[in-house]
Amino acid sequence: MNETQTVSALSALAHAQRLRVFRALVIAGSEGRTPSALADQLAVARNTLSFHLKELAHAGLVTIEQQGRNLIYRADFAQINGLLGYLTEHCCQGGVCEISESTHCDC
């Protein structure tokens, strides 16, 4: 992940409703969710949800799969791991790392 991609991803997540949508997709895992299921789950208008999903997709944080007449949205775990990796790439400057192992920090 480069700086431009990182800024785009962080910008997309810097909105409360988009963050909720993304977290719901993370919880859904590889099964993903349709927009209507997400709208019902999060109690958000479908047109508003559509806008937020488009922003998350544009930032590369979600994938979209056509299944028949439905779209299935999934969190792109490779992208989010890339984002975390970019943010922690040079953590601790060679010192003892205080970041938890779950962030994939290798220092």
From TrEMBL:
<keyword id="KW-0804">Transcription</keyword>
<dbReference type="InterPro" id="IPR001845">
    <property type="entry name" value="HTH_ArsR_DNA-bd_dom"/>
</dbReference>
<dbReference type="Pfam" id="PF12840">
    <property type="entry name" value="HTH_20"/>
</dbReference>
<protein>
    <submittedName>
        <fullName>Helix-turn-helix domain-containing protein</fullName>
    </submittedName>
</protein>
<dbReference type="InterPro" id="IPR051011">
    <property type="entry name" value="Metal_resp_trans_reg"/>
</dbReference>
<feature type="domain" description="HTH arsR-type">
    <location>
        <begin position="1"/>
        <end position="95"/>
    </location>
</feature>
<dbReference type="InterPro" id="IPR011991">
    <property type="entry name" value="ArsR-like_HTH"/>
</dbReference>
<keyword id="KW-0805">Transcription regulation</keyword>
<dbReference type="InterPro" id="IPR036388">
    <property type="entry name" value="WH-like_DNA-bd_sf"/>
</dbReference>
<dbReference type="InterPro" id="IPR036390">
    <property type="entry name" value="WH_DNA-bd_sf"/>
</dbReference>
<keyword id="KW-0238">DNA-binding</keyword>
